[in-house]
Predict the structure of Thiol reductant ABC exporter subunit CydC.
Amino acid sequence: PEIIAPYTLKIKDMTYIYPGGKVPVLSGIDLTLMPGEKIALLGRSGSGKSTLASLIRGDLEPTSGQIKLNQVPVKAFGDEIARYIGVIQQTPYLFNTTIANNIRLGNETASDAEIWEVLQRVGLEKLIKKLPQGLETLVDEAGLRFSGGERHRLALARILLKDAPVIILDEPTVGLDPITEQALITTFLDVLQDKTLLWITHHLQGIEAMDQIIFIEDGQIEMQGTPEEL
Ligand code: ATP
Ligand code: MG
């Protein structure tokens, strides 16, 4: 299906039970992400946050209720959903090919100039310019020298190049040292300014910049409000 901007993501009375599971991991979820809205999603480990991200991406299908992007169930997009919804996970996956190919993934026609542009935005331009092979450096060779934070920046460059309007960050800074983490959060919020953002996080640092904060507990939305209200 073809849909046009602006994009609104609507979750309506959605429940999800894993195949073979007895209790719902998520139940009665109602949530709307308006175009450009920034929402932080907090909740304890196991509360269903990553499951929700998979459902929004259409990787899982709701047991009941709906998840729609501009009236179209996300599941109906198949792989095409990547044009509209991008996810950055806790451990971004890099492929065993060149830096350029890793960033071009899902956007094969992008020029080198476009790649350099996103690398500049995520703060990696200088580092990659210094590599003798530049964009053609194989990631498995350079991989050892890419730190956790740099890997996340590469994943962010990939997402930016695709230019999906809705971005989900699933605890993208877990396991980084505090200084790298802070720098990365600043970059994320800066380059994703014009996107709709669902930021799954486990701590409060940075969430004052969000429009809404949601706490999820035992698969249900327990609290929802602006940073000032909560
Ligand atoms: P964390 O903060 O640790 O990342 P989370 O909030 O992202 O946790 P989920 O990964 O969504 O939590 O998991 C929610 C619940 O669903 C957990 O109880 C988990 O064990 C269960 N679960 C996750 N994946 C599966 C699966 N593939 N099959 C069955 N149960 C699953
Ligand atoms: Mg998770």
